[in-house]
Each structure stands twice: as structure tokens, then as C-alpha cells.
């Protein structure tokens, strides 16, 4: 059966909208927190730690994780989370929706794979240690990261809703 002409022009369905918007808002807010939050020590779970805010503080955490080029990678994570988060939110209304969705979902999926590897390591008893204090021992993040990864994989697989008849 052929689809109605108007259905071909509608880029999203109401049911799929949250699969783009919710992760987009989460990534955008986490990216902005990493970039601007003055409460970064509280975000990493170590309020007694003297860590600067912004990308420098996040880079210090990445140093504790053993990430090479920590300041460069801190900026990359911030840019990916902010720009791709906005791309997911606005992507349904822009031209080339499928391409934009995939271009945003792929780096965010990689971001979540790295975050999951860190989270699993911490749950297994290897927390990040900065200045002798264990930080980032936050096992509550694992379900969030798994959910965000699953949403990104789904958006990579099916970036645009397909209108079907005969459900």
C-alpha cells in the first residue's frame, strides 16, 4: 500500500519524539554542566576535593581516569554533548533528518560506551582517585547510561519514523 503524500513529509511521530528529545535534553544539560558548573566537585561525588570548575575540572577527572590529552578530550566531550544534544532536539525539524540524527547519535553512543566502561570499572571496586579521595563512585549512573546508549543505537538503526498502514 502506498503512503499518503502528507505522511511522507512528516519527519517524526509523537511516540518517537521522546526518543530524541529526552536524551537530547539530558546530553545538553550534562554538557553544559561540564562546561560551566561551579559545583563540579559535588557532581563527581567529592565535595571536599579542590577541583576547578568547567573544562579544566573535567580534564582533571579525565586525568585520574588515565585518558590521554585530558583537556582536549574534555572539550571534545563537552562539544559532542552540547552540539549533538541540540542536534537531536532540533533534528526532526531540519532538512536531512536521517543524516543529522545519525551524525548526532554516533558520537553520543561512543560517549556512552566510554562512560559505561568507567562506570562498570567503578562498580567493580576501582573508583577514580584524585588527591587520595575516591570520586565518581556513582553506580546510579549505570542505568541512565545504558538507557542513553540504547536510545542512540535505536536512533542509529531507525533515524526517521516510517509511516506504516495496517497496524
TrEMBL record:
Membrane-spanning intervals of the chain: 25-51, 71-93, 100-120, 140-157
A Pfam cross-reference name: DoxX
Annotated InterPro entries: DoxX
Membrane topology value: Multi-pass membrane protein
Keywords: Membrane, Transmembrane, Transmembrane helix
Protein localization: Membrane
Principal localisation: membrane
Entry GO CC: membrane
Name of protein: DoxX family protein
Organism: Archangium gephyra
Taxonomic lineage of the native organism: Bacteria, Pseudomonadati, Myxococcota, Myxococcia, Myxococcales
Amino acid at each position: 500500500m502506498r503512503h499518503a503524500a502528507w505522511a511522507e513529509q512528516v519527519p517524526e511521530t509523537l511516540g518517537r519524539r521522546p526518543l530524541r528529545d529526552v536524551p537530547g535534553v539530558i546530553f545538553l544539560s550534562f554538557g553544559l554542566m561540564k562546561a560551566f558548573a561551579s559545583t563540579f566537585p559535588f557532581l563527581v561525588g567529592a565535595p571536599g576535593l579542590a577541583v576547578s570548575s568547567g573544562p579544566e575540572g573535567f580534564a582533571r577527572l579525565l586525568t585520574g581516569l588515565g585518558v590521554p590529552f585530558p583537556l582536549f578530550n574534555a572539550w571534545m566531550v563537552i562539544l559532542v554533548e552540547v552540539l549533538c544534544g541540540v542536534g537531536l532536539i532540533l533534528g526532526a525539524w531540519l532538512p536531512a533528518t536521517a543524516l543529522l540524527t545519525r551524525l548526532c547519535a554516533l558520537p553520543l553512543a561512543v560517549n556512552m560506551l566510554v562512560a559505561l566502561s568507567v562506570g562498570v570499572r567503578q562498580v567493580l571496586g576501582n573508583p577514580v582517585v584524585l588527591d587520595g579521595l575516591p570520586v565518581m563512585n556513582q553506580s546510579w549512573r549505570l542505568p541512565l547510561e545504558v538507557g542513553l546508549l540504547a536510545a542512540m543505537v535505536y536512533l542509529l538503526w531507525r533515524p526517521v519514523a516510517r509511516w506504516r498502514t495496517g497496524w
